[in-house]
């Protein structure tokens, strides 16, 4: 059995590693907000929600689209809600069927899967640690392709590419007739909480992807959206199955968009904890990626494969995300989520134990 392709799969991971996990585990492989979902979700009126179970949902997702468009300051014609960002990634793949695609990696693995499923030719531009996209990369990134995919803030490194570089990239791509898909699934975890939505007004080949899964911890609900030029939105919409965004998701999405205080508090707590973890893990001689979000990569000097650490953590009830299926990382790193202080302390305790064990062996 091979290792799981995504985080949040502790039982699959344990089976693949041929081991049993202890009864209590902390799943640091899942990178959704540990403080979510917001309590208002559980307070929603069940009778109201049940009416959304028996009725067909609004096929145009009108209310949620209007609310998201307002928040992002774009016309509703420039926004499409999907059954998670994952659905939109596959729809984008289908629009660009058989085209030449490049992915700036390491990055979320579904861009490649979606493009390969639609017979695209897929190439990579692999960034090296500390995974900074620079202006000098732009020409190479957009050369001889139809579509470029990238993820910022990046999953798995947590690195947010600088706005100035992104604007230069989008501008160069527009001039060259290259579409650019920027996945901003984690943009709302950054302290600046600033996406690139303003650019949608000026660039017809830019596609921004957003997920509501991560901040609100609603992986089971399936809600994401994209921002793009009207023509492109229409082309993608034509391919989307009717009623793709179910009625419960539409109603819950509207409720969640009222949760500004929850978002602000989550970002503050997670940023504080991330920086605390960075300091503590560096003291223990681990290297940490320059993350701006709710997860980070950890590595050890002179170690090319972190499987022994992953196994040790799992035995102690800490599930980490392996990086074997991230181009450019190849198992040399583990991705760890930022959780609440108690869980982070449990992780630190086990990491310190590992360090002590290493220094004795
Ligand atoms: C970078 C990135 N984009 C998109 C997705 C998919 O999100 P959703 O749950 O909205 O389909 C994920 C999920 O892990 C992700 O990490």
From TrEMBL:
Chemical reaction(s) catalysed: O-phospho-L-threonine + H(+) = (R)-1-aminopropan-2-yl phosphate + CO2
Top-level lineage group: Bacteria
Domain Aminotransferase class I/classII large stretches: 27-349
Keywords for the protein's UniProt record, in alphabetical order: Cobalamin biosynthesis, Lyase, Pyridoxal phosphate
One Gene Ontology term from the biological process aspect of the record: cobalamin biosynthetic process
UniProt keyword Lyase present: yes
Parts forming coiled coils: none
Record has Lyase as a keyword: yes
Name of protein: threonine-phosphate decarboxylase
Organism: Halalkalibacter nanhaiisediminis
């Amino acid at each position: 059995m091979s290792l799981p392709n995504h985080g949040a799969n502790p039982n699959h991971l344990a089976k693949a590693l041929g081991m049993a996990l202890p009864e209590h585990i902390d799943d640091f492989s899942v990178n959704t907000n540990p403080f979510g979902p917001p309590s208002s979700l559980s307070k929603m009126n069940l009778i109201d929600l049940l009416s959304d179970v028996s009725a067909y949902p609004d096929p145009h997702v009108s209310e949620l689209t209007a609310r998201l468009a307002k928040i992002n300051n774009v016309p509703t014609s420039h926004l499409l809600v999907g059954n998670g960002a994952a659905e939109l990634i596959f729809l984008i793949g289908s629009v660009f069927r058989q085209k030449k695609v490049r992915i700036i990696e390491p990055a979320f693995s579904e861009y490649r899967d979606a493009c390969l499923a639609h017979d695209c030719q897929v190439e990579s531009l692999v960034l090296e640690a500390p995974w900074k996209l620079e202006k000098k990369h732009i020409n190479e990134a957009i050369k001889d392709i139809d579509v470029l995919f990238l993820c910022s803030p990046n999953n798995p490194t947590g690195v947010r590419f600088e706005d100035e570089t992104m604007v230069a990239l989008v501008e160069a791509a527009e001039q060259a007739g290259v579409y650019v898909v920027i996945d901003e699934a984690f943009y709302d975890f950054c302290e600046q909480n600033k996406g690139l939505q303003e650019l949608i007004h000026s660039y017809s080949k830019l596609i921004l992807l957003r997920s509501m899964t991560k901040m609100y911890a609603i992986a089971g609900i399936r809600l994401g959206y994209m921002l793009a030029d009207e023509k492109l939105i229409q082309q993608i919409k034509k391919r989307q199955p009717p009623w793709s965004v179910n009625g419960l998701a539409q109603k819950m999405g509207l409720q969640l968009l009222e949760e500004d205080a929850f978002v602000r508090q989550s970002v503050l707590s997670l940023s504080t904890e991330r920086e605390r973890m960075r300091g503590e893990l560096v003291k223990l001689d681990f290297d940490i990626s320059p993350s701006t979000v709710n997860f980070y990569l950890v590595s050890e000097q002179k170690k090319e494969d972190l499987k022994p650490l992953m196994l040790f953590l799992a035995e102690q009830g800490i599930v980490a995300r392996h990086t074997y299926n991230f181009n450019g990382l190849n198992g040399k790193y583990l991705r760890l989520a930022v959780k609440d202080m108690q869980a982070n302390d449990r992780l630190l305790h086990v990491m310190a134990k590992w360090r002590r064990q290493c220094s004795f062996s």
